[in-house]
Amino acid sequence: MTPDMTLRKLLLPFGIDAPAIELQDMVLDSREVAIHKLFIAVIGHTLDGRDFIPQAISLGAKAILAETRDQAQHGCMEMREQSLIVQFYGLGEKLSALAAHFFHHPAERLQVAAVTGTNGKTSIVQLIAQFSQALGLQAGTIGTLGAGLVNKVTEGNNTTPDAISMHRLLWQMQTAGAELVALEASSHALVQHRIASLKTDVAVFTNLTRDHLDYHGDMSRYAAAKRLLLEQPGLRALVLNQEESESENWLMAARGRFELVFYGIGQAKHPQYPYLLAEQVEYLPSGCRIHLSSPLGSSVIDSPLLGEFNVLNLLAAMSAQLCFGRELADVAGAVRGISTVPGRLEVFHRDDLPTLVVDYAHTPDALEQALKALRLHTQGRLLCVFGCGGDRDKGKRPLMGRIAEQYADLAIVTNDNSRSEDPEAIALEVRAGMQNAQSAVIELDRQSAIKLAMAKCQAGDVILLAGKGHENYQIIGDKKINYDERAFASSLIKGTRA
Questions:
Q1: Where does UDP-N-acetyl-alpha-D-muramoyl-L-alanyl-D-glutamate bind (predicted)?
Q2: pLDDT(199) > 90
């Protein structure tokens, strides 16, 4: 099934009167071009799509949109062999609007929640979808784990897909019966206008800590990028974390524009607004017992998720459901249908062995939160196996070393997507952040590092395997090597071979 669209219908709203060429899809990759697929040649951050126009022509493209920086060229057309090339001014910024029009604005027929923040996006998106399913709504997700209906997710390449893929996915899910979609809105995607024309009902802001400074430059630009979510079309409700200081900037920008709901732990910091709080939390071996407090009522729920930050993630997802008009009693009852998010404090346990916990934590704050969370549930020693990515923000390496030393009883520094850098040099930069070099062992082979941690532990101890989470690969040099840490952890606990 393909959208019913012609080049003329697609471009008329943008001031271009083009021939009525039949279109079945839009593509950014010239290798995906076919006769009825419109090739979009945008000026990108690393590549210029216009350089690939000859390849698109050779593959039979009937129509090509080419970005121009000259406004006077907007709408100019030329035939090159069998291909019509149409010049489009500001194509990159308008791509979301173009894709929304091509796929007949699927978000208009869906309830849409968008989640941004340094940490927690993936878990909250998954939890919003799980709650929706438990409440009788067909739900889908788009984010780090991939995209699709609940339990039918296909892996993707980016946290937030490109503008065309985003609207195509929404159209496919809506066609398949989805009523609600929760998506991750990364800072890159917001700056690059990937969701600029995507109708969004509810926005959730989690937190802001150091990450992606290699792209944004500094924390103020990073924070401003996140706040671009407030400009989403159709936005009517905003969920804010009262424990996060950056939420005050969101509040100032949002006051009077949207319905607001705060979530957090303890007492309400903004009692004049609706809130959902964990008044008391009991940390149990099997999860958390949470005593909820809200102007809408109170309740006690049992969550299978570990740690304080997962209490916050759960509250954020529940708050989003309240913004969609669900009753608190119904949402609280739906907690029974919630399960652990893959690679997010995912527990692998056997009574006679140390417990392995796989988590995606790859930023200083995420590592600190994961270790703090596990300490609450740990009877014995807490070990941490982790590394830092190559060709990425080097400033966080000593910070993560210091955090591992502070919150774990022993850290084993290993390899994690070293890319073009020397893994040993990365590990030494991590260890440089530790006050006592004896606080860490360096073992660059990741599986050997995990086995070493197991050998140093006993039943009742917990080992955090940080950084890989849901990923099923290692990037060494320019090679992507199959490696599934969840499967490896499971094999160690079960005594089988991964």
A1: 28, 30, 158-160, 186, 192, 194
A2: yes
DSSP 443-480: --SHHHHHHHHHHT--TT-EEEEES-TT--EEEETTEE
- Angle at the Cα of 380 from the Cα atoms of 376 and 381, rounded to 5 degrees: 90
Q: Work out the average pLDDT over 336-353.
A: 91
Token pair belonging to 73: 């060229």
CATH number 3.40.1390.10 given to 5-91: yes
Across the strands, what pairs with 462? 355, 382
The reply to whether 186 sits in an annotated binding site is yes
Which class is domain 346-494?
alpha beta
Q: Is 247 annotated as a binding residue?
A: no
Residue 117 marked in a binding site:
yes
**In the structure, what pLDDT confidence band is assigned to residue 2 with cuts at 50, 70 and 90?**
confident
Q: Is 159 marked as binding a ligand?
A: yes
Where, residue-wise, is CATH 3.40.1390.10 in the chain? 5-91
pLDDT of residue 214: 58
Where exactly does CATH 3.90.190.20 map onto the chain?
Answer: 346-494
Cα separations (Å) of 346 from 97, 110, 305, 323, 396? Answer: 38, 30, 9, 28, 24
Q: Is 308 helix (H, G, I), strand (E, B) or coil?
A: helix
Q: Judge whether 317 and 334 are in contact, CB under 8 Å.
A: no
Average pLDDT over residues 325-329: 97
For residue 399, say whether it is annotated as part of any ligand binding site.
no
Angle CA 95–98–99, to nearest 5: 85
Query: Average pLDDT for residues 213-223, to the nearest whole number?
Result: 72
Strands 440-442 and 410-413: parallel
Measured CA distances, 282 to 289, 317, 359, 490 (Å): 5, 20, 22, 28
**pLDDT grade for 341, boundaries at 50, 70 and 90:** confident
In the prediction, which pLDDT does 285 show? 74
**Average pLDDT score, the chain:** 94
Answer whether residue 213 shows pLDDT above 60: no
The verdict on whether residue 174 carries a ligand-binding annotation is no
Q: Is 46's pLDDT higher than 90?
A: no
pTM summary value: 0.84
Residue 95 marked as a ligand binder: no
Annotation-wise, does 30 bind a ligand?
yes
Q: Is 119 annotated as a binding residue?
A: yes
Which one-letter amino acid corresponds to residue 263? Y
Q: Is the pLDDT of residue 158 over 90?
A: no
Q: Is 299 annotated as a binding residue?
A: no
| Residue 192 annotated as binding site | yes
> Is residue 209 annotated as involved in ligand binding?
no
Residue 212's pLDDT is 53
Which CATH fold would you assign to the domain 103-337? UDP-N-acetylmuramoyl-L-alanine:D-glutamate ligase (3.40.1190)
